[in-house]
Design goal:
Strand order of the largest sheet: 3-4-5
Largest sheet: 3 strands, parallel
Number of strands: 5
Strand content: 5-15%
Number of helices: 8
Distance between the termini: 145 Å
CATH topology of one domain: Rossmann fold
Structural class: mainly alpha
């Protein structure tokens, strides 16, 4: 049949191109049972609308890097979080040994006046934005050392600004988790523009103490008394006699 168009299995014999129906059949046979994806009209399933503050805060609260820093017994509870029993890595907490790579300072333990300059130096070396958790009663108010100690700092907030206070002596690791969760909520509600307006300032001050200087009771003058000298002299003579007897018994 010359000049006639013959269709075999949906294929045009003139130009050897499959028809549209054949293409659909081949596609349905080779692809899975699920049809081609259909773009829905609901924008909530395709587009995420957020602000720069929310995105920035979400990234920061999910990656708090605490500094490996401790001064007293509270650090034992803080160090327990690194183990597999509590596993604080699931909160995105990655302990760092350098203050230049950390943004969270957990002051765990009593802070003395000798340690205060080092603590302030570590805080100043941390990049902004940075946060501080005062852990334990000794860190917050001086604790048991606030009554008679002359070297304990009565509250670390006299040295550096504190964002969250965690009481206890010492606080349990679960309490530290609760403090971190509360700090994450604070970070999530911050504003990028208003951060400088609400940022805490340094607190390099302390209250004047009302201690009165008195002369020491033990001055060492009793060592110069005649009775003390006589007692020391007799003790020396007795020890000398004992050594002499031991030497004679050894030679015999």
């Amino acid at each position: 049949m010359h000049g006639a168009k013959v269709h075999l299995n949906g294929v045009n014999s003139m130009n050897n191109l499959p028809s549209a129906k054949t293409v659909r059949d081949i596609r349905s046979a080779t692809c899975g049972p699920v049809g081609p994806p259909q773009v829905t009209n609901d924008l909530s399933e395709n587009i995420i609308l957020t602000s720069l503050d929310d995105l920035h805060n979400w990234a920061r609260l999910s990656s708090l890097w605490p500094l490996l820093y401790g001064t007293a017994c509270c650090f034992i509870e803080f160090a327990a979080l690194i183990g597999s029993r509590f596993d604080f890595d699931r909160f995105g907490l990655v302990p760092r040994s350098s203050p230049r790579q950390a943004d969270l300072l957990i002051v765990a333990g009593t802070v003395t006046m000798k340690m205060a300059p080092a603590l302030v130096r570590l805080y100043e070396q941390m990049p902004d934005p940075k946060y501080v958790i005062a852990m334990g009663a000794c860190t917050i108010t001086g604790g048991m050392f606030s009554a008679d100690s002359t070297t304990a700092v009565r509250g670390v907030d006299k040295l550096i600004p504190v964002d969250l206070y965690l009481p206890g002596c010492p606080p349990r690791p679960e309490a530290i988790f609760d403090a971190v969760i509360k700090l994450r909520k604070k970070v999530g509600n911050e504003s990028f523009v208003e951060r400088k307006q609400k940022s805490p300032t340094h607190r390099y001050f302390t209250i004047p103490h009302k201690m009165k200087r008195i002369d020491p009771l033990i001055t060492g003058s009793y060592l110069n008394a005649k009775t003390q000298k006589a007692a020391l002299k007799s003790a020396d003579e007795e020890s000398l006699e004992q050594k002499t007897k031991e030497t004679e018994s050894t030679t015999i």
